Records
---
Amino acid sequence: MFGFMLFLHLGGLLAWVGGLIVVIAMIGLLSKQLGASADSNLLARKSLSIFSYLAHPGAVLVLGSGLYLILKMGSGSKPLWLDIMEMGGGTIAILSLIVTGILGSKVKKKLKAAGGQPVKVTGYLTTMTALMVLILGVVLVVSLKI
């Protein structure tokens, strides 16, 4: 069971990070065209929806399987990398779920109501990039077992 949960944990991490990469790339490439045409707005809204369907379940899967793996490891003295994975990874996953949900819906509303006006998404892209850096930072610390 431990091996299966580890597989789910890594699969969820791939879906979560992959979804973030896709939305950062798509919205970043479309950012200059947003608001100017209905097609680019529709593509951006669809990209955000697909991101939500990939990344949110991935983050929930990482949280659930990570909790199971931590409980199976037991308590006691833990190395630093495991503490960072527990506290940092869990906090980032919960923060990511909340922030991406709220900001994604705000950007979708802006895109829907653009009406030919330019739509600024720099705050959204900056936040998504910061989350990506935090996630990859935790993955790096865990991979190096610092």
---
Amino acid sequence: MQYRFAMWLASSAVALAACASLQPLQTAQKMIGSPASSVRETFGAPTETYQFANGTSRWIYSHQPLGYDVYAADFDANGKLVSFRQMLTEKEIYEAKPGVWTKRDVAERFGLPREPVQYYALMKREAWSYRLYASGYQPAHFSAYFDDRGVLDRTMIIVDPRGGDRRAK
């Protein structure tokens, strides 16, 4: 009897972990108001953490460079989860402010790049690149270009020339 219970408990834990990794947004929405320790137990260690001047913080969960997702878990000053969302969406990208944002601002929003950083000498611009699904299903690359002072110059979304379609999976 104890063996069966132990097996049931183990399979339940595996199923719960699978749900968190396969449906992170749905899992996290149910966790709003939970402490940071619960988020860490469910999703593991973040790839990056940022502390803001107002006492809030953000944990980044990046699936780059091979994946298409970067999730941000936002916590209030008391360490409670207030938001969990996919950051590599056109809505989030279009909020970038060229001429205002710095590399730090881009990193806080989308995480540090996991693709090799490129430098274009003729433009005198450094480019950070991220993979995403444009329009929700078309594989694409988002690039953020910085001038030599580290200020965001422009952003660009380019559809992946190899094609593919997330809907076909």
---
Amino acid sequence: MTITLVAAAAENNALGKDNQMIWRLPDDFKHFKNLTTGHYIIMGRKTLESMNGPLPNRTNIVITRQADYTYEGCIIVNSLMEALAACPQDEEVFIIGGGEIYNQSIAQADKIELTRVLGISPDADAFFPEIDPDKWVKEKQLHHEKDEKHAYEFVFETWVRR
């Protein structure tokens, strides 16, 4: 199994505030959809609820501490280990947030697909973990200018474990 974290974070690693994303970047959404469609995705309960339900054309696995939690169209588990065990062992699996789930999973991850939002360090209550350059190497990056649909410039970064 290849474990890939997918996130969009500001320069200060901010992910969101009050269970909402801080920016709207349509090309980042397209990138995310291209990466994850047809795959298993793992997320925390708050991330699921912030999206108003499971994402289509993906197997949605939700981690929660709530013993009796249910959500139609999702596999509900109580730990990261249970979530990983529910995934095919020969496929790439995507962890899509939030901050607490990224912190739990970065040690097991093989790859990070990070959209780095430039020129902004917003107030936030959820953060992506620091990427340790001794453990990770940036394999590629693709810059995207701001334009009429994108209020911020950003970079698609692919990191792989050393």
---
Amino acid sequence: MAKNNNEVPINGLYDDEGRIFEEPAVDGPAPRGAVDNAPQGEQAEVSLSKEELTALCKESVCPGCDVFKEAEGIRLRALADSENVKKRLLRETEEMKKYAGESILADLLPILDNLDLALAHTDNLSPECKNFVVGVDMTRKIFLDTIRNHGLEAVQATRGVEFDPEIHEAVGTVQDPALEDNRVAQVVQNGYRLKGRLLRPAKVMVNKP
């Protein structure tokens, strides 16, 4: 039936032709395909704690399977490598502290050599010069005691001891019937150790009868 032109549409439910508007449903499930039309990049963010993530991993991987065993082996090897690196760094740090003054003490050795050389030529001196020699000898002793406090010690190199290539450096050979073969016949330059480490070998003449 045609709508009377004098009638006013109730709440806007009729159009000019007298047809009823269909109001969209407010409640109820969303039309099919509405979820599919959502942007592809938008996904729900999942936030897990470290403990929850660990538990999830244990649930996903069986402790008895090969994948779990391989992952556990990799983890243990990484821990072992980390401990080895830590120990090596600590060892290198301690060694660096121990031998920190090595280069300085090595530069001071020529001074000690010159004092030894001066004292080695003191024969047939006048009384005045002998007093000077006494002063040089006292200076040498004070200097030697000072560097000994830093861990420096002389290498054993005296006439008659057996030649040791680890602490002696042969600079020549001599023939001395009074000594056995491969014995130190003369010390040319004293050698020194620093806290057990060879700082400079003793230069010696070796007997070769």
